[in-house]
Protein: 3-isopropylmalate dehydratase large subunit
Amino acid sequence: MTAPVSRPQTMAEKILSQRGDHTVYAGDLAVVEVDQVMVVDSIAQSFIERMERDLAAKPKYPERVSIVVDHVAPASTVNVAQAQKEAREYAAATGVRLFDVGRGICHQVLMEEGLAQPGWIVLGSDSHSTTYGAVAAFGSGMGATDIALAAASGKTWLRVPESVKVTFSGELQSGVTAKDAALEMIRMLGADGATYQSIEMHAGDRFTRGERMTLANLCVEAGAKAGLVVPGGEILTDYGYHVPDWVYPDEGADYVQQIEIDLSVLRPRMSAPSEVDNVHDVADLRGLKVNQVFIGTCTNGRIEDLHAAAAVLKGHKVHPNTRLLVIPASSQVMEQALEDGTLLTLQRAGAVLGTPGCGPCMGRHQGVLAAGEVCVSTSNRNFIGRMGDKDAQIYLASPAVAAATAIMGQIALPEDVLAVSA
Ligand SMILES: CC(C)[C@H](C(=O)O)[C@@H](O)C(=O)O
Ligand code: SF4
Structure:
């Protein structure tokens, strides 16, 4: 008998081996247990149709399925209302979890509810399901059919992705954030530079859970299948997570690509229209007039993001030619921001506050853009037509830059605001 070959593994290979029934490497086919299946409102109708009509199946483990009403919530049209009604009825009939209007954006909610854990496999009907990699879960987005198959069988099959290693070194300077690091990463990799690969991010004990979510969230914008942040220091255990020893990548694992990002030289960054990898220094885009600023989304709608925005906006007013929309990512974020006065600061500065959820992120409601308008958003996509008219322009930035822009009425850095008030 020959001894089984054992080679060093990447984090993706580790998780897919552990959740399957044998050791796998990049390129292998893996059949794995799925720990959580997430379905968003916009896809719920197709999901239910696949389950009931095509598969004639019930969820194998209802406790492993969550439906979140977040993308167009509260409903904006009769059709949307009807689809959400069906989602509620389906949840009641099958016993799957339902997070209804106002609870928040799917990825934020699952994370808050502990429905993504280190070493788990979490599949979502949403491309930004890479976000779960923040807590070392293999999170990935799939279409309604794959999601339904996973819900019906409790398993999924996939080709084990190759991995890209991204190493973060140095420390961020003040005013520079994880969003800037994430945008820089996407610029370096390119919009399709990591197609079907797993981006494995090595950051030591840098970055909070929320910042790790921002990094993992953006990974899909380089085409990645997953975006895994290697747990470092006590970051995850401090949040109460159990990090299994087997989740860490091995020394000497195979990477198809390796890049390093020195955080200490990074300046605030911004994606200009209409690709996420079209990244520039904010300083070089300064001065462009902006009609709408949107602070929120699964990328940057967390409490620390609202704090960063409030720190810049406190004592200032939103520019008269600009509107500022602030939408907390979840009801939990909203509560915290109510309790600690952040929302009052934002409201007094002239922000328009919205119901926790996706808001105008994908242009369905609550802040759609007209032709020729310019928006600075803390989200993750600036594609043509994403937030409304095809002739609107979207720039992506951190909450601090978005807040400074709202005050100045034009693309600005937080230090520009200080210069004006001095
Ligand atoms: C509606 C949903 C399927 C979509 C996604 O897959 O990401 C949306 O969340 C987005 O950000 O474009
Ligand atoms: S906030 Fe935006 S990017 Fe995130 S899930 Fe919602 S629509 Fe998609």
About this structure: Residues 269-421 form a domain with the Aconitase; domain 3 fold (CATH 3.30.499.10). The mean pLDDT is 97. The first strand starts at residue 29 and ends at 33.
